[in-house]
Amino acid sequence: MVYKITRKNVLEAVNKEKRLDGRGLLDHRPIEIKFGVSNKAEGSVSVKIGKTEVVCGIKMGVQEPYTDHENEGTMTTSMELLPLSSPNFEYGQPTIEAVEMARIIDRGIRESGFIEFEKLCIKDGEKVWSIFIDLAIINDDGNLIDAGALAAILALMTARFPEYDEKTEKIKFGEFTDKKLPLNADKMPLTITFFKLGEKIFIDPTREEEEVTEGRLTIEVSKPEKEEMINAMQKGGEAVFSIEEVNSMVDEATKIFKKLNSLVTDELKKAKKEAKEK
Amino acid sequence: MATKTKKDIVIPGEIISKGNDFLPGDWTMKQGENIIATRIGIVEKYDKLIKIIPISGVYIPRGGNVVIGEIKDITMNGWMVNIGGPYSSFLPLRECPGFIEESEMENVYGIGDLIVTRIFDVRRTSVDLTMKSRERGLGKIQSGIVVRVNPHRVPRVIGKEGSMIKMIKDASNCYITVGQNGLIWINGDDIEKQAFAKRIVEYIVDNTTTEGLTEKVEKWIAENKPASIKTVPKEEKSEENVEVKE
Amino acid sequence: MAYTKRIDGRKLDELRDTSAKIGVVPNADGSALFKQGDTVAIAAVYGPKILNPKHCQNPEKGVLRVHYNMLSFSVSERIRPGLSRRSQEISKVTEWALAPLVLLDELPGTVIDVHINILQANAGTRCAGINAAAMALAAAGVPMTEMISAVAVGKIDDKIVTDVTKEEEDYEEGEGATDIPVAFLSNSGKLTLLQLDGRIQAKRMKEALEAGKEACKKIFEIQKKALKEVE
Predict the structure, then answer these.
(1) Do A16 and B192 touch (CB under 8 A)?
(2) Which CATH architecture has domain C18-225?
(3) What chain A residue is nearest to B224 in terms of C-alpha separation?
């Protein structure tokens, strides 16, 4: 519940470089990852950041390629703000919040070169694989973009192709191969959204904190070779940022990228180990 | 977090008494020969009355309760207040001390303000509030932070004869006002102390079903107290004036 | 070939691995996860709360609003996100199944929202949804006269079976497959959900209902245990 007084509280805390839950401005809440939440999906994962929980399922399809990308697979990202997850979400057409979040997450993945779209081509100009990245919120406690983006990446990395019948040109749904999606692991993009309140900037807000922020900047970072790359950026909300602030956030983003990257690597290793043991 | 199966939690429809030993009280009903629970909770027997103490769900307003509510709207004769749950609550103008002009109402309690108030009448779906009470501390919340918890865990936050709430106050140097509807107002010198008090409250609420809660809370406080909060020694009542050093 | 042995080796009246857990959606007033074999349903309850706009309020009793939907990746062939006609129908029959339990007369002018989402589907999704929803309502402290448990029984070829799987639903040999989702109240033993998809001889209906009743008793025990586990 966000009250009039909440803004004062959060502002007072961040002005002292602290949060109400004791964290620093650039600290994440505990992150919990669980793979395989839906065995019907080609890949799936649940990501919890604090009390926020997002699930992501990867579904594959086959279709005709777009005319300007005749030998490339396609990708579609959707985000469902399930009314289950918050008293503030309603049924109906996707809200602008959901649409914007999905598009930000989509851009970061698309631009990074993480997915090798040409390797998703089945027949030039005729048939290509399409990847559906479907995100759904299970519990909303803020920072949905970062949680969703992380879930998308992890789901993609553990997804595998379904069986495809070349003669009928149809997917044998329910039958999976061992073949992973064509990904450049070293081009993996990770998303960090910075939020602004007053003069202070912080990451990973709870819903209560996020409701009183004035603006945000989402930065999607990858490190393909020696150098960090920015694959997408989006400023949201009505706050204004100075050049110094933006430069400082870009700097911080590269540092946070390192932390998230080792978390992802550890989690994938764990998942691989568990899969082998089964 | 450890899960414990509590033998005395009953679920809706569960038979809690057979025959005519008891009369059905809150959240129970007669079903043939038996009395069943109609809400998840703990059975309590009081003389010939058997009832359920709820452990979850909406707050049940009771006359005399101190609650913290949010001003939702201002009408000609008072303020509409949200105290949680499916009740419309109203603070009539005549229940406020002094004389308030209609044009002044917004300044006294404005939309979005939080107030500490007292319930004086409960009807089927509406509640009347009052600011006229011997209870001190009623009024508008101007500073501090407000935490929202499961109203059924409030007794644990207060503790036996206020022992738990005293522990929170001592550890954080903050004033704590507990609304029976699950809103808790924490007021202190600075945000760090208030934030710490909030975390202690949240720890208590997350662990109400654990045994030895008091010891656990003491331990948690010792392990998590920020260095910047120094315990102010209690003023000793003595012949000489003892200076309180920070 | 006649259906003599079940595809997954279970006995005719055997349930799949069933488990339940409450408190999975912290924001909700009550929530539960219910797993029936491979089928996974989550339910979250918000309320009772005042129903707005005011003209929608029922001055006599509270309103129960149920929404059921499957997540796009819960099935083999992706479902487009958003409500479908199937989910609308299931939402309604679920509401009719749950409403008799809730003491709505004591909650005039209010609404209780029940949200059910299927994470993973292998038949029996509406039943798993009802099982999860019942637990979420109880956990939310909603006043109820009893609990409800649901299961999909079926007739596969000429055998009455309990807890039908997708593979069984697709069985085409012999008499084919008939899917009969049912829900029974825990105390009164009355039915509040009954649907039939397929064909069955009238005289065998009794057998199917008995099988459903027995299975629901077992499911009730699992729901009860999960509700009594407090963290």
Answers:
(1) yes
(2) 2-Layer Sandwich (3.30)
(3) A22
